[in-house]
Design brief:
Organism: Cohnella fermenti
Number of domains: 2
Keywords: Signal
Main location: other
Helix content: 40-55%
CATH architecture of the largest domain: 3-Layer(aba) Sandwich
InterPro entries: Bact_Solute-Bind_Prot2, Peripla_BP_I, SBP_2_dom
CATH class of the largest domain: Alpha Beta
Number of strands: 12
Number of helices: 11
Structural class: alpha/beta
Family: Belongs to the bacterial solute-binding protein 2 family.
Largest sheet: 6 strands, parallel
CATH topology of the largest domain: Rossmann fold
Strand order of the largest sheet: 2-1-3-4-5-11
Length: 356
Amino acid sequence: MIKQRKWGVWFTLAMALVLALTACGNNNNESGSVDNPLAGKKIALVMQFNTGTFSAQYIDGVKSQVKKFGGEVTVFASENDLSKMASNLDAAVNQKFDGILIDHGNADALSAGVAKAKEAGIPVVAFDAALGIDGVTDLSQNDQKMAEQTLEQLAADAGGKGNIVKVWVAGFAPMERRQESYAAFQAKYPDIKEITSFGDASNPQLDSQTKMEAILKQYPEKGSITAVWAAWDEFAKGAANAIKQAGRDEIKVYGIDMSDEDLAMIQDPTSPWVASAAVDPTTIGTVHVRYLYQALHGDTPEPAVQIDSVYVSRDALPTDKQVTTAELSQYVEGWGESDQGNTDYLKELEAAVAAK
């Protein structure tokens, strides 16, 4: 009887221990990390500049997607200083981030840092930098198409003739690609004359507004300026503000890129900004992250990836309510969510993190 009692006590204790261990295991599965080598990655986002709402929404896209993959992002902002950007890239390598995202910049400033990252085994994916470095995917918007979309509509609205102002700046890969389309536009429409051109990336919106105000004083007669073509939404905002304040409602503005702030201006019937060609900035951030995680997985993504753009005009938008970029797909076909860069294993990772 004593032996039976002892056996019963030991059996009860053993079962209690099994149940406790099972409970601990369940708790660890619920609150612990996802058992996936791609989870828990630390990602550096090295940016040349983070000016304006477009950049803000792009950053949101990056952070959101990395979080969905179970990782975390540190942003290195460089205030449009390429030397500082190169230093930030070196810092990201030295701090041993798992992966590095580059936003803008150029090969002259960043090649040495990218080489260090490759030597350290840290994958790099760049957006709008056109690095042309072996093993580094260059992601971009279809800049030539965006320029063509806005310029062709400008020409149609102007009847193939008129005087225009170009707001553009050299030294940035996307701007240089947009300039190629602008040069073709000039050859195609000889009766559309460029009367002046300007652009400064340091304080783009304020600078554009100030310079546009001066140009409007130089050309005070209505009809002397037909339209403004702005190769960046920050330029478009500044030019549009100057034109609106001057009461020159005959001048139309055509821009590139899109954010919620931009969309509100385009919807405003009193704004001269009537259209823009763009890719959803949040989607750009999402796709950028996916290609980096492909590299982290050990894949070799294609060397150059383009994200296609859509044309957004005031005519396509509702007049009875203000819409955001999150709602824009209801009115503009092709806008919004993209599966570009996604893979089965990334979908599994995202599902595992969401179920954690």
